Amino acid sequence: MPSWVVVGPGDDAAVIEPERGALDVVTTDAQVEGIHFDRRFVPPDAIGHRALAVNLSDLAAMGAQPRAALLSLALPDATLVSDLDGILDGLLALATAQRTALIGGNVTRTTGPLIIDVTAFGSVKRRRILTRAGARPGDDVYVTGMLGDAVVGLQSLREGGAKAGDPVNVCEARYLRPEPRVRAGLVIGRSRAASSCMDLSDGLADAVRQVAEASDVGMALDAAAIPISEPSRAWHARNGSDALSTALSGGDDYELLLTVRPAQRGRFHAARKLCGHVAMTKIGTVTKGRELVVGYGDQSGPLPQGYQHFAGSPEAGPRR
Amino acid sequence: MPSWVVVGPGDDAAVIEPERGALDVVTTDAQVEGIHFDRRFVPPDAIGHRALAVNLSDLAAMGAQPRAALLSLALPDATLVSDLDGILDGLLALATAQRTALIGGNVTRTTGPLIIDVTAFGSVKRRRILTRAGARPGDDVYVTGMLGDAVVGLQSLREGGAKAGDPVNVCEARYLRPEPRVRAGLVIGRSRAASSCMDLSDGLADAVRQVAEASDVGMALDAAAIPISEPSRAWHARNGSDALSTALSGGDDYELLLTVRPAQRGRFHAARKLCGHVAMTKIGTVTKGRELVVGYGDQSGPLPQGYQHFAGSPEAGPRR
């Protein structure tokens, strides 16, 4: 345990020293078997990885440095100890990579599906906080990474999984073990170049809608600019389906959406260089009013609806 | 929201200002329908109350001041909106009474039972932290409140509930809406009179075992000293069952077990007076070695096993 963990797992509660001069950032997100993942093709370590990743993605979207996590598990009686070990291994591997201490948790039985609920703690300096509420007309709209890969990976896994050497393996990996954009969030937060930020857990269309609502603005996206990976394009071409539609409405990518004021462009481009291999692509502009449109060459249309989880049903309520 | 909540519900994560000069205390505990509560006789507001109360009880056991909570709900599709409202009402009523801000959360569907998972945040000054690990031979052993009431209340509710005017109503209320010993924990922590502390979520026998293990000591309890309420005694007499055994092994009381060094007795008795109506009863002594015994007049026997949840099965793992 790091030195700032004063009381770790095993007592009534954990005690940690806040980071000096910084604020606490906290978030919780649960993954439910049969709603958020299917154990037929999501191995235990990926369940653990994803449960932490979705929470670290929320911290990243605030510009926060992850520090610690609590794990709350509801396990069916038929859970194999080897599966439980796999879940913990996957979670701890990502925790180690992201320097996040597992400081406690709770395990209970359930008569229903396996539920893994993680609470993640991070820290951020006050002036570096990224919220959804700061976008203004004229700001540029950016996303990190490639959109729609996770949906392609999920579909491919459902159909039995890609063969060795098939580039769709990359998409499967992106679905199973998403890389939360922690470093990108930190660098952007530190640079103070972004006017708003949100993660894409429920897809681009959903995030655009949320940021526009929180900021009281509209957005105009350029369909041609939306970053789509080669494996995703190839997979869609093979299946006769629409890669753009997946990139707009598909979820589980855990990339970041951010807006940048024209005056901060220089600062933003400097920060961007520090994000290593993570692409940042300009996909549109913030507009006045509350309209959300996607331009397709000379034409334009309304932004499609957001993502619905793989069970095909809407979430019962808001997600963080 | 209090002024120290910098970003409240509705963004990717919540941001709070740590309390100056204090440490963060965090805990999580989930309540599962059919394992921890039975909706046939636990009304929605009590589900919400209990979910927060069990977490505030953990904070109390650390000597911490509660500040904030995150709520994570997994709801079956058949959940009535009125039940959801009731759950929130019960949770928010206790949150308000204990000055705890609900700063965010997550709602998801589940195909299984309703699960309510709360993460509670508090603060404590470093010198006031109460852990399980400080008991030493010669220390006095105390508990707050009356033990076994919750089990009596649960049994009574299962059998259809007590009639109006029956004193067992008090026990039912103690099961449905336990009062976490926040003030007692704070006062004891501030007084620095206790050498260890733990809450009794899984019963006295379990807590005695945990504190003894963490502190590497034994304990000798005096059966005659264990505080049992009049309604509990009367109910047990009527049912031909054993009130002492319930007080020792029964769970869900959410009282505190604490140990006090002989040299701190004066300080402890001064602090005790500040705890208002909460009884603190000396029930035994910390001993050398690791033996856990209960004295019954001239005789003594081993400490019985701890509590098992009402479904009659052991928890699948450690609880906080």
Going by helix content, strand content and strand pairing, the class of chain A is alpha+beta
CATH class of the largest domain in chain A: Alpha Beta
Q: Name the helix and strand elements of chain A from N-terminus to C-terminus, one letter apiece.
A: EEEHEHEEEHHHEHEHHEHEEE
CATH superfamily of the largest domain in chain A: PurM-like C-terminal domain
Q: Which topology of the largest domain in chain A does CATH recognise?
A: Phosphoribosyl-aminoimidazole Synthetase, Chain A, domain 2
Radius of gyration based on Cα positions of chain A? 20 Å
Largest interface summary? A-B, 72 and 72 residues
Q: How much strand of chain A?
A: 25-35%
What's the structural domain tally of chain A? 2
Largest sheet of chain A: 7 strands, mixed
Helix content of chain A: 25-40%
Principal-axis shape of chain A equals globular
Terminal-residue CA separation of chain A: 28 Å
Oligomer: homodimer
Number of strands of chain A: 13
Q: What is the helix tally of chain A?
A: 9
Low-confidence stretches of chain A: 309-320
CATH architecture of the largest domain in chain A: Alpha-Beta Complex
Mean pLDDT of chain A: 94
Summarize the model shown:
With 320 residues, chain A is α+β, with helices and mostly antiparallel strands. Chain A is built from 9 helices and 13 strands. Chains A and B meet through strand 2, strand 3, helix 1, strand 4 and strand 5 of A and strand 2, strand 3, helix 1, strand 4 and strand 5 of B.
